Fold this protein.
Amino acid sequence: MARVSFQDELCKGCGLCVAVCPKSILQLDNDRLNSKGYHPVTCIDQSRCIGCTFCAVQCPDSVITVEK
Amino acid sequence: MTKRILMKGNEVIAEAAIRAGCRYYFGYPITPQTEIMHYMALTMNKAGGTFVQAESEVAAINMVYGASAAGGRTMTSSSSPGISLKQEGFSYIAGAELPAVVVNIVRAGPGLGGILPAQGDYFQATKGGGHGDYRNIVIAPASIQELYEMTVEAFNLADEYRMLVMILGDGTLGQMMEPVLFRDEEPIVESTKEWALTGHKGRDHNTIQSIYINPDELEAKNNELQAKYRAIEVKETRFEALDTEDAEIVIVAFGTCSRICRNVIRQARDQGVKVGMIRPITLWPYPTEVLSELAKSDTLKAFLDVELNAGQMIEDVKLAVNGAKPVYFHGRTGGNLPSQKEILDLIMNIHKEVNQ
Amino acid sequence: MAIVFEKTKGLTDKPFHYCPGCTHGIIHRIIAEVLCEQDILENTIGVSSVGCTYNNYEYFACDMVQAAHGRAPAVATGVKRVHPGNTVFTYQGDGDLASIGMAEIVHAAARGENITVFFVNNAVYGMTSGQMAPTSLLGQVTTTSPFGRDSAVQGYPINVSEMLATLTGAKYIERVMISDFKNIQAAKRAVAKAFRVQKQGLGFSMVEFLSTCPTNWGKSPVESIDWLKQNMVPQYPIGVFKGKDLEV
């Protein structure tokens, strides 16, 4: 069991985490904007998260916390 | 009990620095100051300090910047073309408010110039060759004893005010030998540098930098610096006044040039012309007040500014005198020195002119 | 559940100003993580340089000093000579290190200064909007090589790691790439090794990070990583150029 959480305000919508997630469960949320005007990342299915930390390691802005 | 030793000017500067607690010297060879570096190479390690020959004068001033940021008492020395290279570093040191001592043994310019003495770096030293609104304290010794005492004091001033202090010598002072009386103990004023970078165990981490993107912050920083400089102007201005009380003509000269003029005073008075001299010791802050006071006197008829350049300090003299009295100029460049005779002849002519 | 990844204490709370997807953020993080993991954060003094990371003295949670453009290795020399027992690092881009600062980096390495240099190579000048760098590739379009870098008039890219490896004073030099999980972890191991080299007083160490500049390359962050792998690696092979067998 694993899950990811995000600090939305730090996300710049760069999409790197989305591209590297091996389970393809990350997406930029087109329905939301943070105060900087970016679409922050969201996890569309936490149940499939394997806690590999690929996303967190790829993130330049320390947005992601991973629990396992 | 003091020791009296015959020493060369450049070596005295190095010895004075070590006595003042300087433990980090970074330099690059350039005539006519290289003896400072050689002395440091031989002596610094023995004193428990560090000597580094840098790859350039640019690198040397940046090593000084780093060592100062780390809380060390540090210096570099060079001569005019090398000092030109350091101007960026001076601006950064001023902006970051770091203590540092820099010695300029001035040679003739411009360009590669000559290796003989000159005073052609006055503008560069006092008006700032680096960018932005800043000042360095500039001290102009006129004897080997002063080279010693003022170099020691430079480190204390640098630490106290967190800024660069320049010892502005010239090739003559650097190369000549005179007896020096060394103290048994130097008046070192230690300062706890809480701002220094030492590894932040037990405190918040420190940062040292000089960039403020926000204009209000940068303006506030500039105002702080200016307030510091105003305080220094009040407290640290130094000069020597020689026979000025009854003088008709007052010479204004610094450094090596002032030594030549000192003899002229006696000769002029022997011929019935009352001459005196104001010898600025700090070129910044400049002894403006004493000059403008003298200019008001009825006995004083004229100033004579004598320099080893094409006319640099004379602008500060004129600013101080503010049109109250004529300011004459005599200068030599290229590494040549004026003779006592040529200055005396000029004084006689001025005396005739102002008494017509 | 336990936390297996969270933001490192080696970075301050200040959000990075870097462009979205800029690899500076990743590099800052892995350096900060290693400082914490080796328990040397409180002992470390870093030197910021001039470029996009001009203000990273606000991001690293340790004593930091900002240097003039290109002069960080000289500033670091001054710091390290005063505090030989502290860990001292510089963080420099390709303009800072390989253009204006070329004399300083060569001589710091030649003198064997016991510092660690982090060299971020993204083949372009970022902060000043995309000029050609000493590391720009032949044919690369930049704001000062608008027709593509032409060797006839603009010379050839410089392989800094290989060049510095010829100096006896340089003890550990490795080039890594900030591309994907595997390589980022390898980069972090290189950072850790470099700090161990310094801690053991062995001499000069440097890690060159092949990095992206999405903004000035005119590509998305993801496309930039692909471009890096396809175009930069042939010119700048990853690997250890000095100190491969160092046991630290």
Summary: The radius of gyration of chain B is 21 Å.
